[in-house]
Design a protein that fits this description.
Order of helices and strands: EHEHEEHEHEHHEHEEEHHEEEEHEHEEE
CATH superfamily of the largest domain: P-loop containing nucleotide triphosphate hydrolases
Number of helices: 11
Structural class: alpha/beta
Largest sheet: 11 strands, mixed
CATH architecture of the largest domain: 3-Layer(aba) Sandwich
CATH class of the largest domain: Alpha Beta
Number of domains: 2
Strand content: 25-35%
Radius of gyration: 23 Å
Length: 369
């Protein structure tokens, strides 16, 4: 499967420099033998404009919207067509250009070529952007750059995809982004199957739930001598379809091997009613434990939560059966919220009686950005 690495951001954040350096990193480290780089501005530079760009830009936007719309349309047609030819030849492509309303074009490109789309919005402090632009002699572009910075950081679809490189060397940016690149992976809707694919590699696919999955969970848990309720998983599917919950279904070599859900607007627990997403019901089937699937499910859940909030939380059981999960959450940066333990959906008072069963919970949270 090929990859599309797209770096957006306002002028002055070093998009082109970083795109070139990231492509070199992929090839020099042997991750890829060859990568094709597309600088969107190269197509733009084919248009001969006045040297006095302050007559082209007014209050951060194009003074002549008709001219600018045609230029943008041409540039994006060139970017998409060129990238498509590259992907057809089996190469990864690294692209840099400002993305305002064009993300659907990139999602469509990735879907048509069965490629992964990694989407990063580079940004920096206002002072850093102003200094960089002034150093290269484009003072007239400062207003436009600051306008784009504010716009791009506030776009809902960019939540969880913004990377601030203020004060960082390119090598530091590369190291940090490469290590966390999976969190910048865009989920791609697959309309034919009415599912959403959140992650995919040669063996593992993490997708949204389909109605038939409920029976898989019920049958699997019954085989463990647990006491599942079919209604639970039917409700998961219904809530997913109603936009109340995201359900992440991992398939390994074509077979369902677990589950993880993200409640988008939880009403219970220490953060109930605050629109902070909650990770609920993370489970990997016994026969495939220690395969990294649980960690990948958390990667996906956290990435989706980051698009909606600065924080995510979860609850973990207190008895030894949850010992491995407790250790994993701590290693991933989750910390107890300070409200003590909860029992049967209520905060437990000091010295109050309880039973150390699956209803005795500790809530933990993680800052996402």
């Amino acid at each position: 499967m090929n990859n599309i690495y797209f770096f957006s951001g306002p002028c002055g954040v070093g998009k082109s420099t970083f795109a070139d350096a990231y492509a070199k990193y992929l090839t020099n480290t042997g991750i890829r033998k060859q990568v094709y780089v597309i600088h969107g501005d190269d197509f733009h530079q084919g248009f001969v404009e006045t040297d006095y760009k302050d007559s082209f830009w007014k209050e951060g936007q194009a003074a002549d919207q008709i001219v600018w719309t045609e230029i943008l349309k041409f540039n994006w047609e060139c970017i998409i067509e060129t990238a498509g030819k590259v992907l057809t030849r089996g190469l990864d492509v690294v692209i840099d250009y400002v993305v305002e309303e064009e993300l659907p074009l990139l999602l469509k490109l990735a879907k048509e070529h069965e490629a992964k789309l990694y989407y990063v919005v580079l940004t920096a402090s206002e002072d850093a952007i102003r200094q960089r632009i002034e150093e290269r002699g484009d003072v007239e572009m400062v207003e436009r750059a600051l306008f784009l910075k504010k716009e791009l950081e506030e776009l809902p679809e960019n939540h969880g995809h913004v990377f601030d490189n203020t004060g960082k060397a390119v090598s530091e940016e590369i190291a940090e982004l490469y290590e966390n690149m999976e969190s910048y992976l865009c989920c791609i809707e697959v309309a034919d199957e009415d599912t959403t694919v959140y992650y995919q590699d040669d063996k593992l696919t993490i997708r949204s739930m389909v109605a038939e999955d409920a029976k898989v969970y019920y049958d699997t848990y019954m085989s463990y001598n647990w006491h599942p309720q079919m209604e639970t998983y039917e409700n998961y599917y219904r809530e997913q379809q109603n936009g109340e919950r995201l359900v992440f279904v991992p398939e390994y070599e074509g077979k369902v091997v677990g589950i993880c859900t993200l409640v988008l607007h939880p009403t219970e627990g220490p953060w109930g009613g605050q629109n902070i997403p909650e990770i609920v019901d993370l489970c990997v089937f016994f026969h495939i434990h220690k395969s990294g699937i649980g960690s990948k499910l958390l990667d996906v859940a956290e990435a989706e939560a980051a698009k909606r909030s600065d924080m995510v939380f979860l609850a973990v059981g207190c008895h030894s059966g949850y010992g491995a999960a407790q250790r994993i959450y701590v290693k991933r940066g989750y910390i107890p919220d300070g409200s003590g333990v909860w029992y049967q959906n209520k905060q437990l008072d000091q010295y109050a009686p309880c039973v150390n069963d699956d209803d005795l919970l500790l809530f933990m949270s993680k800052e996402l950005r």
